[in-house]
Write a structure and sequence with these properties.
It contains nine helices and 19 strands. It is of the alpha+beta class. Strand 2 (about 45) and strand 3 form a beta hairpin. Helix 8 runs antiparallel to helix 9.
Length: about 375
């Protein structure tokens, strides 16, 4: 993997040099991991001038886990945990003769930016912008393999839950059990806080599980994801508890399912992000739910949940092959409940079979 990380850093430095900077100072946690491998929280990465340098507040080789920093990096561990790796990086960049360094202004506070200027007054600080995030959009085979395993783990955890008795258990208890099962199946942990909503809580985006108990006739919505070697999956399903679904439940489920299928089918390289959003909204608008859909219908996944691209009405850009995204529409009817269906997929050209579905738990409306 060291060669992969080195190639990623070389591409970034080439972009910086073309923009007039001598080096890049990367401080966003996911961005540092993308370019340097597994590193302690709060680390900073100086790409150029000369040999790339990872600056940390803790020894990166002391912790266990899912990997280590790239072997070709030089590593500097600050003598005090009170130190700031980004500030130390700016000092070293100036000492190495750099005249301009591109920094991730969107990951720096004003106070931290001032600290960089104060320790390296001769250094011009340019804005790197979302250059690393853009570089992360298209995933390589190893990244997609990690995402595929993360999706399998989430599917396994969800499948096992569906085989257990659910009536009478609380949302909170079910969420905790799901997160334990993720770890049991090989995940580092949950990719995000697991959401379980039942009855009037079902279908809500980001619902925080509470002590409400599952009852017969409820909709039950579960949204979870696994973190595997830093890469995240996401899946959501909605079920009916203990009885045949009511007519309104069947109708709402079919509407959301049709919208989600339209979004999945729109995942073709070259399709504008906003067109995927439009494909989903068109179905739900026709069903009378125009005001109930959230601000987006999907997003990128990788080292973060909710990374670029955003599939939203105002989103700029077009899909590329090998970009993993979610398609996750939901409709909630206040006081009654709702439906959310969410999959993780990888954009593929039609010649390769179209979008690759990573989360394969059934989307049939099951009565559990």
């Amino acid at each position: 993997m060291s060669d992969v990380y080195a190639e990623r850093r070389a591409r970034l430095l080439e972009r910086c040099v073309a923009g007039g900077s001598d080096a890049a100072l990367v401080t966003g946690g996911a961005n540092v991991r993308y370019l340097a491998g597994r590193v302690p929280a709060g680390s900073a990465l100086l790409v150029g001038p000369g040999h790339d340098l990872l600056l940390c507040v803790a020894d990166p080789f002391d912790a266990g886990g899912d990997g280590r920093p790239a072997g070709d990096l030089r590593i500097f561990v600050l003598p005090s945990v009170e130190g700031d790796p980004a500030v130390a990086a700016a000092e070293r960049a100036e000492a190495a003769g750099a005249r301009a360094v591109a920094v991730e202004e969107h990951h720096l506070t004003v106070l931290r930016h001032r600290a960089l200027r104060s320790v390296a007054p001769g250094l011009r600080l340019d804005d790197l912008g979302p250059a690393v995030e853009q570089q992360r959009l298209v995933k390589d085979d190893e990244e997609i393999s990690c995402l595929r395993i993360a999706a399998e783990i989430a599917d396994q955890a969800l499948g096992e839950l569906l085989e257990s008795i659910l009536v009478g258990r609380t949302e909170r208890h079910l969420a905790l059990e799901l997160e334990r099962r993720l770890v049991d199946h090989g995940a580092t942990g949950a990719a995000f806080a697991t959401s379980v909503g039942t009855g009037p809580d079902s279908g809500l985006m980001g619902h925080v599980p509470c002590d409400r108990r599952v009852e017969e006739g409820d909709f039950l919505t579960v949204c979870l994801g696994a973190d595997y070697r830093g890469y995240h999956s996401e899946v959501a399903r909605t079920f009916v508890i203990g009885t045949s679904p009511a007519e309104w439940q069947i109708e709402l489920y079919e509407q959301v399912f049709a919208a989600q299928r339209a979004g999945r089918e729109a995942l073709v390289p070259g399709t504008p992000y906003r067109e995927v959003d439009r494909a989903v909204r068109r179905v739900l608008d026709a069903a009378g739910h125009a005001e109930r859909l959230g601000p987006w219908v999907g997003h990128g996944v990788g080292l973060e949940n909710g990374e670029d691209p955003r599939l939203a009405p105002s989103a700029m850009g077009k899909l590329d092959a090998c970009v993993p995204v979610t398609v996750d529409p939901g409709v909630h009817l206040p006081g009654r409940g709702g439906v959310r269906i969410d999959d993780t997929l990888v954009v593929r050209p039609e010649a390769d079979g179209g979008p690759e579905l990573l989360t394969i738990t059934t989307k049939e409306l099951l009565a559990l």
